[in-house]
Structure formats: C-alpha cells, structure tokens
Amino acid sequence: AILAKFSTVVQAYEMFAREVDPEHNLTKPEWRRLLSNHGFLEFASRKEINCLFAELDISGDNQVSLKEWYIALEMAAPVRSLEALRRRWISSGYKSMTQAIRVMDKDDNLVGSRRLELAEFGTMLSMTDVTDESEHRYIFSAICGGNQTTTSLEELHCAIAAVSPSLLLEELRDKLSKRFKGDFKRAFFYIDEDNEGVLSMKEFLNVATRKLDLNRIEAEKMFREIDLDGSGELSEDEFISAMTIVEPSLF
Fold first, then answer.
1. Which residues contact 177 (CB under 8 A, 6 or more apart)?
2. How many CA atoms lie within 13 A of 214 on its CB side?
3. Cα–Cα distance between 199 and 205 in angstroms, integer?
4. 221: which DSSP letter?
C-alpha cells in the first residue's frame, strides 16, 4: 500500500514527518488518524490496522514512533538494488556492512574470492534477513551485470562499498563505539597517547595496529580518509566528525 502511493519508503516517511515529529510517540488513535489522512485505511480493516500497531509496539506501552514505523517498513521493503540491500541490513541492526558480509562468510575468511552460483549466493544472503529468492536474483544481477554466471563475497563487498560511505571507517566506528559506548571523544584520547590533542599518522598507525586489530594498509587508508585537509594530522573535531558521518543510518 505504501509503494502504491509513494515511489519509495523514504518519500512516504518524509511526507508523514511533515505532520508528525519523528521522535513523538503516537497513540493508537493518533496512528489511525495519520493513516486515514493519507488514505491508507482503504487498504486495511480497523482490525488489521490495530494488529499492525501491536506489532510495531515492541515495548508494549501502546505507543509507536514514526521512526519505529519507518524501520519496520524498510525491513519489509523489497530489495531490488544494492542501495536497498544496504538499507535492509541497517534496519536489521547491522552496525557496518562488513559485519553483515562476515555473517555470510561461514569460514570467517572475509571477502572470500570463491566463485558462487546464484543458489549458494542466495543461501548466504538469507543469513542476513534477505530471504526472498527474487531479491537474491536482483542483487546477483546487480553485481554480475548480466555478463557473469557466478559472483563472490569479494565482489559483493566491492559493490556495497560503491553505495556506502567508507566501509573501513564504518568498521572503525563500530569497533570504537562498542569499546567506548559511543563516546568518540574518549576514543580520540585513547588513540592520542601523547595527549597533544592531535594525531599524527605515526601515532594513529601505532595504536590502530596494536590495539584495534587493524593492519597497516587499512590504518593508513583510514587516516587519509579522515584527514580531509591533508595536514598530516587529525584534530579531535576531524576525528569525531568522521565517526559521526559514517554511522549507518536510514535517516
């Protein structure tokens, strides 16, 4: 019903957000009124609308937010492109795209080059909440371009990188977020071992390889991606801004 009225889930969310603060918790009457204002009650009975509300009300407090509704829509939206695959993974709770690919890689051999036919590729995608066979075909075709009969996790990793912020920075953000509970100011001073308030390439590489399980090549690339002004040093503001920008988000 949503995609019958709007071209994308994002468009539907933006329209609803003009009427309701995304952070506001809607009661059941407010929920029905919002749907009614946009003509959605013609697609479902009152009972079905109430059942949908109950499914979205995970906490059981008889309230749902527009954000909760939007995440549920993204979970249900068909995956017909690499961008849609990224959104499905984010709505499924993956903190980085590399994390999702690791789930697919049963042998824990990240971005493996082994060739995969459609059936095996689809089985792996199903491990990450992409279970429909038609969705498997769309993603397989998006990677292969119609010219190949096999693909690999390495090629999927490259393809998803093309529609994402830096996957390396996304992965770094996930590591630091877990260790410092989202406090990237603390994370910066953890890396800034000499307490000078800036990070040199040498200092960043030293900590990244010793304490963050990164190899030197990955760490060098991360440093250059954060060092936007090319000064050869990372300030606290540069570092925190980079970690904020690469947060996987639907909004």
1. 95, 184, 243
2. 24
3. 10
4. H
pTM: 0.72
**Hey, is 151 helix, strand or coil?**
strand
- Compare 177 and 12 and report the one with higher pLDDT: 177
| 199 beta partners | 234
E strand residue ranges, the chain: 25-26, 64-65, 198-200, 233-235
User: Residue 191's closest CA among 230, 236, 232?
Assistant: 236
What is the Rg, in whole angstroms, of the alpha carbon atoms belonging to the chain?
21
Contact 151, 144 (CB under 8 A): yes
Strands 25-26 and 64-65 come out as: antiparallel
Q: Is residue 176 within 8 Å of residue 186, measured between CB atoms?
A: no
Burial pattern 184-217, b for ≥16 Cβ within 10 A else e, equals: beebbebbbeeeeebbeeebbbebbeeebebeee
Count of other CB atoms within 10 angstroms of residue 178: 10
**pLDDT tens per residue across span 84-120:** 999 999 989 998 998 999 999 876 554 478 899 999 9
